[in-house]
Please model this.
Amino acid sequence: MANILTFFHDTLGVGWGMAIILLTLLVKVVLFPFTLSQIRSMEGLKKIQPEMKKIQEKYKHNPEEQQRKVMELYQKHKVNPFGGCLPLLLQLPILFALFNVLRVPENYNLDFTNAYFLTMDLTKSHSYWLLAAISGLTSYLQQKMTTVSTTDPSQSTLMYVMPVFMGYVTYTLKAGIGVYWVASTVIGIVQQWIITKFFIHEEQPEIK
Model:
């Protein structure tokens, strides 16, 4: 991780903030096949929602049969309800590595003495409410694009709670990690739009 940041900073001559954004872009490119699979699963879930509701209503007094029918529905349409978690899980080691690099950059022979991006000191935490607010807002927009509509009130609550939580976490962490997270979310939103428009619609023209 430190070597990649150093390459962008020293070889390309960009600041540490831009080096983090380029790292984010690189990670997104590497994870694109998993993201494509994730979005296909989500679009598949949206497509089977009417059938899902019928099953839930028909077998509401028989949970075991309901579960069996739901699994059959997943298999029939080749939908993996847990496929959406994989890209996020794959990013966790990167977040941990970046956290360690920004926490003790001297251990990785990095000089972050003047690591500023848009006036933010990338090594400081608990200082940038605006970054936290952008993190929460972009997390909400991404969640809005990817969440399957449901009448479950707990899901609706989660739609608002998670962005607030992500904004708070961004505020408490080093600003450099916040820059990574915001860049990752924004690129994710763009990826979602591109995949839905140019990949999913070609495969499933009936989805609008």
The beta strands are 116-117, 120-121. The chain has a mean pLDDT of 81. The radius of gyration is 20 Å.
